[in-house]
Amino acid sequence: MTRRGGHDAGRGIHGHLIDGVLRAGADTTLAEVYAGVVRPALGIEAYFGVPEHVLARAADLEYADAEWPRRLPALPWMAPPAGAMDMGRMNSPEWRRAVFGAINLHTTASAAAKFFADLTREDGPVRALLGPRLHGEFLRPQVTGHDDLFGTEVTWTPGFVRDHVKIAKGGLGGSAAWWSLRHHHACAYLTRRLDDHARAAEIAAALGDDLTVMPLR
User: Which InterPro entries does UniProt cross-reference here (predicted)?
Assistant: First the structure.
């Protein structure tokens, strides 16, 4: 079981904003809504706050290359939070039990692939959970523009990179999951050895997919 992280600090903040909205507007929390509504509806093994009975299965993270953190974006506003680079903290039971939206989901590659396989289905659990209108918005391209982290133009839905051939999401350290719009299959590669996305790209190429960021026009 591996942590799926967000790409950068800015996007990681969104999870805390959602938690704040739920607390202020609905007198509940992200942890309660996810555990009580979202995870049962999706039917996948993915946790915000790893329960005790599966805590021992969580994989310890490590750097594949000691120089890897130095190759991350240098601009302060794009840098991951310092704690996300501290392997002692990230591998601790306290971190795994905690709930930090957008950066601290613990799941398996099989569960991530199942989520993407179900993502676009009109009779699938994601659409049933969100309803037709929100499901359409969830998948619809919302903005295309230059992304400083990718260094190129990117098209984003509210949660995914989208182009003519895929709907995808990457994670800090080389993890990636996607749905192929061309071949109609899902794939997920989650790693505990933090590095670039070359390994996920090789898997995609073997499947006839392409993880190159290509904006919709």
Answer: Beta-lactam/transpept-like, Beta-lactamase/esterase
